[in-house]
Design goal:
The chain has 302 residues and is α/β, with parallel strands linked by helices. It contains eight helices and eleven strands. It folds into two domains: 2-178, Spore Coat Polysaccharide Biosynthesis Protein SpsA, Chain A (Alpha-Beta Complex), CATH 3.90.550; 184-289, no CATH class.
Length: 302
């Protein structure tokens, strides 16, 4: 067992949480659940999981906190739940560790020198049960493990990343997976919610209302995340509305070979690269036409 606390945010994650916790195979000393007042069986499940974990020397602590935004909620979990382990980790409830990653963390993490404060992991996304391997979606490189107190989530409304306050980062070679088991109705509702966050984030960025010192560009994180943000803000949003969604889908589906991901890939790349981006543009157009400001988003109700 590694000296590790895993922080997971939840809202109605009864369907996903057990497989997330069980994928650690007894690796972590502690799990911290920060719940934004779920209305399903999430809290009951957490109580059951804690009883099971206590038998192997681990534990799960359940907290509830009112949702403001993802970064605020995650940083609350990292700072207000008395984490005493040497290492902390950010996970989403719909994510799992692959068995070879469990072994890699178990062997490598305790051996890292004091100059290393963070570990970057590779993530693969599953959609409708299929690994989305093409379309530029794999691998996603994410800073997920860090020395306790040495990293925070950047205070950003959309596309927030973990940033190190000091030290170096290293990459592990094996994957974690994003494998949400909820249905397509939930997925589209979530992306409709995301689109409001995206428009609000763009409005605040344009108005320079965010504190630039808290943005990724001025902090230590992965080069991949920095490049994606540079392309998005400096290139993608410089293209004409609606046309850019069309171009982005062609890039993802044809140039980056998304069509090789089969029917599930066709659905995923169309909805995520075209429908979602077109919806964001439509909401931006509406806001500009009627001089409308997007309100800060509450937690996802789906």
């Amino acid at each position: 067992m590694v000296d590790l606390t895993v922080v997971i945010l939840t809202k109605n994650e009864e369907k996903n949480l057990r497989k997330c916790i069980e994928s650690f195979q007894g690796l972590a000393k502690r799990f911290v659940i920060v719940d934004s007042f779920s209305t399903d069986g999430t809290e009951k499940l957490c109580n059951e999981l804690n009883k099971e974990l206590l038998k192997i020397g681990s534990r799960l602590d359940f907290y509830q906190n009112k949702w403001t935004d993802y970064a605020t909620q995650l940083n609350w979990g990292l700072t207000k739940t008395n984490i005493t382990t040497k290492w902390s980790m950010r996970m989403d409830a719909d994510e799992e560790l692959m068995e070879d990653l469990v072994q890699e963390i178990n062997f490598k993490l305790p051996e890292l020198g004091p100059q290393v404060s963070g570990v970057i992991l590779r993530r693969r996304v599953y959609f409708m049960g299929r690994w989305i391997k093409h379309g530029g979606r794999y691998p996603e490189l994410l800073l997920r493990i860090f020395r306790t107190g040495k990293a925070m989530c950047e205070q950003k409304i959309m596309d927030e990343h973990m940033i190190l306050s000091e030290g170096q980062s290293v990459k592990f070679k094996n994957d974690l997976i994003d494998n949400n088991t909820k249905d397509l109705e939930w997925w589209t509702n979530k992306h409709n919610w995301y689109s409001n966050r995206e428009v609000l984030d763009h409005q605040l960025t344009v108005e320079k209302a965010l504190n630039e010192e808290n943005l990724l560009e001025n902090s230590t994180s992965t080069n991949q995340a920095k490049m994606k943000r540079l392309v998005k803000n400096g290139g993608y949003y410089g293209l004409p509305k609606f046309f850019r969604a069309h171009i982005y889908f062609i890039y993802r589906y044809y140039i980056k070979l998304g069509f090789l991901d089969g029917p599930e890939g066709k659905i995923f790349h169309f909805l995520q690269a075209y429908w979602y981006r077109f919806l964001v543009d439509a909401k931006m157009y509406e806001c500009e036409k009627f001089d409308k400001k997007i309100k800060p988003q509450e937690d996802l109700k789906a």
